[in-house]
């Protein structure tokens, strides 16, 4: 097996090998921003590092140390702080009682408090009282009851792949009949939440994609910032396709389709299954069909990231529609699935990675091979996944009564967010705040791309103690009945102040 391309021989090459997909939209993408901020911070820190190195040399000399450092500060540049974690720190340090945190990527209740789902509390109680529970290792591929339930949840219990028993949860454990009309299989491994699932998929592509050089991974512009690092860290090249139209504050479908058509045949296309982060803009079902048609025409490989199933619309099937459609269409694809948001299990790191083989005579064997290699990658990275979150999700997913209660909890979370969207739009429109605000309700899920400029975001933070990412993204979960008036007043004031 050829090794993955190694692109980090020169310091310059440490920057993500970012190629922009054609359009001016692609300028100023998250990746470009990350690149420039990291290079300026590294040059600034290098003189500091040089004096530190000199200091440590003097102290080694005095101390008579015989063990000089290889990883000196001069050799390992200071990495820039993750912007989101920096934002959280700044929020915590702000003493104002008016402060609002709209950067958080976690659900908050109407009192701005973390919410443990009632059904999760019940499942925890069941676990606590289970006399057979122990702390043994899980298998490499995770808890079997969890992975099989995760498959049903994402692909649908009546998915062709599952119904015809063409699904395998464990490596080298074929369940498909080689005589079934269409041979297609799904391999599923439990992962360290959605991030671990994206990473496992990225690593698999970097090691096993047969094309040389490996295909470029196309990310939406903008995307969840971590996508850039996850794919570049395994040595894959990334590029962007236009996604968000600043003009309509909706989907730039023509730009997206054009870039996917122009991308080299066989590229990897990362798609957010629902509740696109950071924009909150999702394609309609008709647009998904157009996207699928282009991906088929260009033989691209769809890589779905699904971090918000059920959290977006409150309807699990609706939020998984795009994935199910692609499976029905016979694509070979993979899915990274997170249970962080829809179960409120953020820190428990429950997730799954699914690889669906394309229909064909070789599918069963191919899928087993994929599963076996995924297991080797998993073993070398984490050995086996954590048990607690998967046990909770598994109890709920496999019990019809608890499942129904979970759906109710999902509706509570998504419903509160939808109410906040309506409330914000209505307040801004009532005030006559310059601009249009219908996108606040047409966008979906945890985040809204408000259209506020970097300067407006800065004023909101400095004058009003309101914290959000500088691209104007707000977490709707940070709004509640106690702060929505204050927020609308702040936005109104800042927009007027900066719109001459
Ligand atoms: C698009 C997207 N993918 C993946 C994740 C991964 O989340 P986690 O690792 O917490 O499951 C997130 C979380 O914010 C996300 O927004």
Automatic annotation (TrEMBL):
Pfam families associated with the record: Aminotran_1_2 (PF00155)
Domain Aminotransferase class I/classII large: 98-491
Gene Ontology process terms (BP): aspartate biosynthetic process
Compositional bias ranges of the Low complexity kind: 23-51
EC number annotated for this UniProt entry: 2.6.1.1
Enzyme kind, highest EC tier: transferase
GO MF annotations in UniProt: L-aspartate:2-oxoglutarate aminotransferase activity; pyridoxal phosphate binding
NCBIfam families: PRK09257.1
InterPro entries: Aminotransferase_I/II_large, Asp_trans, NHTrfase_class1_PyrdxlP-BS, PyrdxlP-dep_Trfase, PyrdxlP-dep_Trfase_major, PyrdxlP-dep_Trfase_small
Catalytic activity annotation: L-aspartate + 2-oxoglutarate = oxaloacetate + L-glutamate
Names of the cofactor(s): pyridoxal 5'-phosphate
Additional free-text comment from the UniProt record: In eukaryotes there are cytoplasmic, mitochondrial and chloroplastic isozymes.
Keyword annotations from UniProtKB, A to Z: Aminotransferase, Pyridoxal phosphate, Transferase
Positions of region (Disordered): 1-57
Gene Ontology cellular component annotations, sorted alphabetically: cytosol
Sequence similarity: Belongs to the class-I pyridoxal-phosphate-dependent aminotransferase family.
Record protein name field: Aspartate aminotransferase
Protein source organism: Rasamsonia emersonii (strain ATCC 16479 / CBS 393.64 / IMI 116815)
Subunit structure: Homodimer.
């Amino acid at each position: 097996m050829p090794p993955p391309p190694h692109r980090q021989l020169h310091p310059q090459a440490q920057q993500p090998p970012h190629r922009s997909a054609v359009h001016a939209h692609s300028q100023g993408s998250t990746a470009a921003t990350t690149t420039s901020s990291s290079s300026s911070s590294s040059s600034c820190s290098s003189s500091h590092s040089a004096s530190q190195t000199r200091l440590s040399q003097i102290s080694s000399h005095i101390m008579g140390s015989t063990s000089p450092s290889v990883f000196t500060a001069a050799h390992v540049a200071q990495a820039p702080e993750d912007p989101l974690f920096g934002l959280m720190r700044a929020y915590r340090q702000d003493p104002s009682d008016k402060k609002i945190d709209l950067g958080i990527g976690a659900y908050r209740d109407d009192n701005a408090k973390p919410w443990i789902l009632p059904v999760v509390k019940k499942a925890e109680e069941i676990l606590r009282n289970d006399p057979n529970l122990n702390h043994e290792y899980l298998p490499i591929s995770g808890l079997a009851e969890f992975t099989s339930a995760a498959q049903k949840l994402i692909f649908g219990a009546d998915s062709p792949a599952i119904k015809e028993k063409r699904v395998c949860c464990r490596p080298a454990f074929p369940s498909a009949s080689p005589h079934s009309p269409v041979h297609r299989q799904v391999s599923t491994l439990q992962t360290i939440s959605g991030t671990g699932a994206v990473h496992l998929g990225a690593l698999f592509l970097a090691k096993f994609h047969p094309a040389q050089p490996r295909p470029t991974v196309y990310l939406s512009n903008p995307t969840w910032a971590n996508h850039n690092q996850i794919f570049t860290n395994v040595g894959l090249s990334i590029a962007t396709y236009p996604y968000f139209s600043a003009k309509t504050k909706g989907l730039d479908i023509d730009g997206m389709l054009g870039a996917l058509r122009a991308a080299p045949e066989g590229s990897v296309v990362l798609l957010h299954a629902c509740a696109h982060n950071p924009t909150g803009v999702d394609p309609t079902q008709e647009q998904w069909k157009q996207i699928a048609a282009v991906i088929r025409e260009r033989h691209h490989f769809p890589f779905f990231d699904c971090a918000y199933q059920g959290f977006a619309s409150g309807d699990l099937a609706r939020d998984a529609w795009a994935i199910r459609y692609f499976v029905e269409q016979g694509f070979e694809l993979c899915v990274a699935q997170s249970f962080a948001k829809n179960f409120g299990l953020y820190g428990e790191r429950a997730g799954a990675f699914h690889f669906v083989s394309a229909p064909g005579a070789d599918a069963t064997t191919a899928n087993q091979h994929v599963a076996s290699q995924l297991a080797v990658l998993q073993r070398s990275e984490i050995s086996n996944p954590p048990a607690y979150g998967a046990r909770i999700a598994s109890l709920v997913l496999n019990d019809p009564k608890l499942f129904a209660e979970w759906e109710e909890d999902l509706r509570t979370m998504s419903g509160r967010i939808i109410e906040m969207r309506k409330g914000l739009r209505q307040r801004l429109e009532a005030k006559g705040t310059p601009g249009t605000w219908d996108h606040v309700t047409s966008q979906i899920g945890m985040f809204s791309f408000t259209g506020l400029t970097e300067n407006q975001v800065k004023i909101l933070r400095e004058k009003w103690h309101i914290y959000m990412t500088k691209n104007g993204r707000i977490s709707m979960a940070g709004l509640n009945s106690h702060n929505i008036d204050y927020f609308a007043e702040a936005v109104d004031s800042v927009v007027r102040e900066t719109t001459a």
